[in-house]
């Protein structure tokens, strides 16, 4: 293999490439979050129950999570630019189809296409961050990527809610789908895969695919990243994408405007908590897993208070719970930083794909179970669900929090032992507050 650096790392070109890719991620989060405020309208448009409403988002996330490993392999083979282009085409087509769908089946199929496009975006952006930025820059840029992406959630919570009421379902979703065409031009014009020219191509034959994924999965660092992502992300995703808005409006009796405002405020809090998390992770690399667990515990406590409160919890407590939940987004980004410490550069696509499976698997299972519990509690549709029904259904989160914390601490122990064995001195380096980045030599499946 011959490699020649042809562009500066961490300089102006890197920032331009990142900003264009980031815009694609913002759009992906917007499309993903669009049902958060459209859920009640969708239930009326298609005349569906809570379980059927959850099917929209669950199927979208099933497709998203199921594609992470193949997308990771394709990303290592074809690069971020190609994957961003394909992702944009799929998201634009899916959202346009969703705009004109008049049947439940057609709308579900359209959301599945959106999920397929969405699956290609985030890991592609993270790979660009890995290759275009300096080691000292990467943790902060990774966090800012996740935080800035939440601008899409703000747009879904506020402007989309306005467009739906002002323009109606079809015109609102058709208008938002057109943004993808503009970003296609931007990616074609500005995004480059790497600052290096290399003769090496990561070509993975089909018969070697299973072994390749097994090797990356066998690394305890990959699984540590995945379980960290699993335990911290799902609650914020479930709340913002589907069940938070109905819980606030139908369960707690909030107005639609107040509920939308809280969802936007959660995103603003995500930015604040993300900057704090990034600083902690950079200064305390040895304690990254404990930082994730600490944030999850801080999330569980106010959720418990809200669910156990007699009747509707006071507004201040709901706001505290929502902000604590929003902190899970930045905590989930730590999973990618953890995996980076264990993974050779030529395997980052597959490792990040496997990490990304964690939170979205937990999210889709939680969303589906909440819908099932609601329908078992009251079978009369959205209007029949009481506050008690919502409290019972939202309690399913505890099973996933418990599993995630146990597995994160389990693989923290295994991961540290792995690093001590493969890279003597690395654990002591992290204890001293210095980041350890994989040197990129060899394959380290266990």
What does this structure look like?
The protein is 78% helix and 1% strand. Helix 1 (12-33) runs parallel beside helix 5 (80-100) and helix 8 (138-149) packs antiparallel against helix 18. It is mainly alpha-helical and 446 residues long. The relative contact order is 0.15. The two termini are 26 Å apart. The chain has one domain (3-191, 213-431): Growth Hormone, Chain: A (Up-down Bundle), CATH 1.20.1250.20. The radius of gyration is 21 Å and the shape is globular. It has helices at residues 12-33, 35-45, 50-66, 68-78, 80-100, 104-118, 122-132, 138-149, 151-157, 159-167, 169-177, 179-190, 206-218, 220-251, 256-283, 288-308, 315-326, 328-342, 348-377, 387-394, 397-422, 426-431; strands spanning 3-5, 196-198. Strands 1-2 form a two-stranded antiparallel sheet.
């Amino acid at each position: 293999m011959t490699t020649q650096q042809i562009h500066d790392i961490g300089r102006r070109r890197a920032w331009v490439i990142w900003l264009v890719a980031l815009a694609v991620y913002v759009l992906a989060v917007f499309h993903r979050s669009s049902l958060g405020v459209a859920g009640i309208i969708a239930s009326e448009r298609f005349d569906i129950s809570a379980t059927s409403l959850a099917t929209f988002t669950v199927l979208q996330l099933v497709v998203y999570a199921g594609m992470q490993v193949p997308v990771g392999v394709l990303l290592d083979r074809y690069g971020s630019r190609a994957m961003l282009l394909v992702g944009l085409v799929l998201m634009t087509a899916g959202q346009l189809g969703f705009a004109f769908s008049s049947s439940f089946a057609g709308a579900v199929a359209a959301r599945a296409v959106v999920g397929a496009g969405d699956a290609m975006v985030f890991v592609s952006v993270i790979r660009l961050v890995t290759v275009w930025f300096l080691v000292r820059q990467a943790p902060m840029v990774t966090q800012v990527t996740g935080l800035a992406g939440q601008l899409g959630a703000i747009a879904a919570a506020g402007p989309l809610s306005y467009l739906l009421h002002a323009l109606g379902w079809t015109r609102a979703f058709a208008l938002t789908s057109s943004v993808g065409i503009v970003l296609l031009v931007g990616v074609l014009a500005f995004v480059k895969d790497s600052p290096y020219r290399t003769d090496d191509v990561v070509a993975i034959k089909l018969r070697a695919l299973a072994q390749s994924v097994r090797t990356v999965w066998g690394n305890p660092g990959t699984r540590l990243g995945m379980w960290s992502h699993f335990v911290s992300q799902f609650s914020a995703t479930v709340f913002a994408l589907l069940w938070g808005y109905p819980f606030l409006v139908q369960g707690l009796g909030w107005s639609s405007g107040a509920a939308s405002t809280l969802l936007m405020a959660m995103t603003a809090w995500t930015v604040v908590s993300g900057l704090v998390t990034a600083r902690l992770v950079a200064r305390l690399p040895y304690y990254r897993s404990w930082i994730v667990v600490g944030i999850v515990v801080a999330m569980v406590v106010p959720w418990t208070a809200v669910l156990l409160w007699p009747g509707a919890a006071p507004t201040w407590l709901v706001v505290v719970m929502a902000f604590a939940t929003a902190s899970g987004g930045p905590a989930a980004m730590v999973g990618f930083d953890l995996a980076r410490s264990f993974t050779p550069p030529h395997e980052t696509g597959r490792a990040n794909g496997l990490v990304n499976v964690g939170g979205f698997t937990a999210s889709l299972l939680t969303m589906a179970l909440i819908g099932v519990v609601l329908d078992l509690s009251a079978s009369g549709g959205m209007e029949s669900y009481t506050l008690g029904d919502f409290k019972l259904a939202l309690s399913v989160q505890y099973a996933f929090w418990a599993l995630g914390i146990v597995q994160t601490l389990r693989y923290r122990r295994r991961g540290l032992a792995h690093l001590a064995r493969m890279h003597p001195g690395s654990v002591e380096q992290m204890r001293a507050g210095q980041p350890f980045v994989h040197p990129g030599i060899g394959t380290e499946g266990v």
